[in-house]
Amino acid sequence: MAQTTDHKISSTTIARGATIALSVALGVFAAPDAHAQDTGLYGFGFGGFTFNGQQDGDGNLAGAPNSVDTDYDDDFQLGFGVGRKFSKLSSDKIGVRGEIELSYGESDADEIRFSGNNTPTEINVGGGIEATTLFANIYADFETGGALTPFVGAGVGVGRFSQDLIYGPGVQVSESDTAFGLQLIAGAAYEVSDKLTLTADARYREFYDIESNRFDPTGASTGVVSGDFSAVSINFGARIAF
User: Fold this and answer.
1) What gap in Å lies between CA 90 and CA 4, rounded to an integer?
2) Cβ density class 62-91: b for 16+ within 10 Å, e for less
């Protein structure tokens, strides 16, 4: 369960972290590579589905501390961006590349679990969560000498979340918030030609301290819920070399 005091990150810190990460990524993309036969640049796109989405939140609701843990249904994710292979950092066995990725996903809420509430589990939940995320990723490609190349990667970024949950007699948890996030990636690529590469990967993402307001049936705010959101996704896509 998330502890708000441990993870609280200010909007200024988020903005600075995102600026630094993207500035470094853009600087490396722009750096000349005299040893490369080509630019190493490529565009990519992917689509897939997310599962095991959950947000473990805490808040002071109606004057009392309460945990508000939300589970989400399986749903979809889409993304695209640009990447570059870095021959200066690569070897015959391990290739290094970076990406800037923009993605979008959404999930409907499944159930909400409470502590200190007359109804410990609310299963009749409407609404869900939407997220637009921007990541700077770094990858290691494990060269096999053939068309198939396994890879692992990690990314740092930010997400813009819009949450709108409705349950009980008109109770609502709703807000838009920006949060800092991390992701881990593992997958494999299959080179169809010099220009086209097909990809498949699994990703784990976590975003920290997403805040939402809780409103009673009259529309009055009864507290703020803050929690970390995480999900796993399976994706399939393609890379096109420039």
Assistant:
1) 40
2) eeeebbbbbbbeebebebebbbbbbbeebe
Buried b (16+ CB within 10 A) or exposed e, 216-234: beeeeebbbbbbbbbbebe
User: How much is the pTM?
Assistant: 0.80
Residue 2 has pLDDT above 50, yes or no: no
**34 is written with which tokens?**
């005299």
- Give the tens place of pLDDT for each residue, 169-199: 888 888 899 999 999 999 999 999 999 999 9
Cα 198 to Cα 149: distance, rounded to the nearest angstrom:
10
The values of phi and psi at residue 19, to 5°, are: -65, -45
The span from the CA of 151 to the CA of 137, in Å, is 12
Backbone dihedral angles phi then psi of residue 237, each to the nearest 5 degrees: -160, -165
Where does 4-31+42-241 sit in CATH, by number?
2.40.160.20
Q: What are phi and psi of 38, to 5 degrees?
A: -140, -175
Reading the block at residue 13, the tokens are 């810190």
